[in-house]
Design goal:
The protein has four helices and two strands. By secondary structure, the chain is mainly α. The chain folds into two domains: 58 residues; 35 residues, no CATH class. The radius of gyration is 25 Å and the shape is elongated.
Length: 100
């Protein structure tokens, strides 16, 4: 699930412009900070799904289907592609083309 989008509810600048000597309404500050916290918490929860505490990607996070195959296969030799059951032939120097 994607994080909740933060949308500002209270316009503090307008309040301060119309009432410069009055403190900001604490309840409105709390509402805004709680909304920011909810969005930030959701982002952190989603990040924890793909990133380990040591900052590396979690196991099984990235897999071949996550890449555009044209980009992925151009930079790998057929030796690296054998796990995907695809056949390749060499063309144009160091690039490899899929032969189906």
């Amino acid at each position: 699930m994607q994080p909740i989008q933060y949308n500002r509810v209270y316009h503090f600048t307008g309040y301060q412009t119309s009432s410069p000597s009055v403190p900001l309404p604490g309840n409105q500050v709390d509402v805004e900070l709680n909304a920011i916290k909810a969005t930030t918490d959701a982002i952190r929860a989603n990040l924890a799904i793909i990133q380990r505490d040591d900052t590396l990607l979690c196991n099984n996070t990235v897999h071949p289907d996550a890449f555009n195959h044209g980009v992925f296969y151009e930079h790998r030799s057929p030796v690296h592609q054998q796990n995907f059951g695809l056949r390749y032939r060499r063309c144009h120097g160091r690039h490899w083309n899929r032969t189906h």
